[in-house]
Design a protein that fits this description.
Distance between the termini: 37 Å
Mean pLDDT: 92
Strand content: 15-25%
Number of strands: 20
Helix content: 25-40%
Radius of gyration: 23 Å
Shape: globular
Number of helices: 13
Low-confidence stretches: none
Largest sheet: 5 strands, mixed
């Protein structure tokens, strides 16, 4: 991995995700299975646009199946998975597709509401797509039209899992195979805020008076693919909503539209202006409180409170016919705290969505600001 970032004046090395490791191991194993030739280095494309060239380890080849591993490198942003081996075993099966399974050390999902199907392995959508895309390339290059079964394993995952949030999320038995970009970027909070301010400065220099803001990839994808807006001039705020609002006032912008997933945006309804989970997590507490203020029983309130994700809580609200009563109150509170932070010097709006439930609602100014950006496309 040769990519670097400068963080707080230091040159820090990037790394690659468990999703990239699983993809590379699966591709190398498939190549060896279908060609019979040993592969000691494998290349994969990442959603970030960076091509990785990774060393293949612990190769075991037979005519029926091939297993190999890629060693995780978190760069200068190390975590508990740094240095572990991520394995893939590939074998031919009847059919013509790519079937993906979780082996030892890959967690299994036991609760609804996550990006992975309940009962299946905790292999997130982006790594799934990366693995499928790369193996389809291998099949085409080898003129193989049959099916492939891929089993991803992380032997150290059983030991590491208790140190992660997985047990709280209902993922048991191992770690999750993660990554939306394929690359691990070492970034301090100061560097992230500085990057956001630099993006805002660029928009100011262009004469733009209306900011379109996302927390990250989910908001970008939803706005581009579902709302059909041009997102080329957007700002990414990560978790730093307070700094975003403060600096936007300082720079003299007229409007700001924040489009975000419920898991992040709903925290603003409690005045939380840094949405990272290490600072605050009031998502289901707020939903449970509002539901009980609108007539929910103690039992329903407890179910909401104990929901693992906002998607699960929203599902309960809809089942209990409370969605239409609770959500407007939440948006009213989001509106209040955003306008309070900017001292009414900017017209702000927020639009909330869910990958499961779609559009969940908007604050009072959001429709107007959405149309403003639509006209400017």
């Amino acid at each position: 991995m040769k990519e670097f970032q400068v963080v707080d004046g230091k040159k820090l090395k990037c790394g690659y995700t468990t999703g990239s490791c699983a993809t590379a191991a699966a591709k190398a194993a498939a190549q060896m299975l279908l060609t019979g030739a040993r592969v000691d280095c494998v290349s994969i494309d990442t959603p970030k646009g960076i091509k990785l060239h990774l060393e293949v380890e612990d190769i075991a080849m037979t005519s029926a199946r091939v297993s190999c591993a890629i060693r995780k490198d978190s760069g200068d942003d190390p975590d508990d998975t740094n240095g572990i081996l991520v394995y893939a075993e590939v074998e031919r099966v009847v059919g013509n597709g790519v079937e993906l399974r979780g082996g030892t050390g890959v967690g299994h999902v036991t609760q609804p509401g996550l990006a992975c199907a309940m009962g299946g392995p905790a292999i997130n959508p982006t790594p799934r797509k990366m693995i499928t895309d790369e193996l389809n390339k291998v099949k085409a290059d080898s003129s193989y039209s049959g099916g492939l079964l891929v089993t991803i394993s992380v032997p150290k995952g059983v030991e590491i899992a208790p140190k992660t949030f997985n047990p709280r999320l209902g993922v048991v038995g191992g770690i999750s195979i993660l990554g939306t970009s394929g690359i691990v970027e070492p970034m301090s909070e100061k560097a992230l805020v500085d990057t956001m301010r630099a993006e805002i400065n660029v928009q100011k220099e262009k004469g733009n008076k209306n900011l379109l803001v996302f927390f990250g990839n989910y908001g970008e994808d939803y706005t581009r693919d579902i709302l059909k807006l041009d997102i080329s001039q957007h700002i990414t705020c990560s978790n730093f909503v307070g700094e975003l609002l403060d600096y936007s006032v300082y720079c003299g912008f007229e409007t700001l539209l924040l489009i975000g997933h419920s898991g992040k945006l709903i925290k603003l309804a409690q005045g939380v202006m840094n949405t990272h989970s290490k600072y605050a997590d009031c998502r289901t507490e707020l939903i449970a409180l509002e539901a009980m203020l609108h007539g929910a029983s103690i039992e329903v309130g407890e179910r909401l409170y104990r929901s693992l994700t906002t998607d699960v809580a929203i599902k309960i609200l809809k089942e209990e016919k409370l969605f239409e009563q609770v959500m407007p109150q939440i948006f009213e509170r989001i509106d209040y705290y955003m306008q309070h932070r900017v001292h009414d010097k900017i017209k702000t709006g927020a639009l909330m969505f869910s990958n499961v439930h779609g559009l969940l609602g908007k604050t009072s100014n959001a429709a107007e600001l959405l149309e403003l950006h639509r006209r400017n496309c």
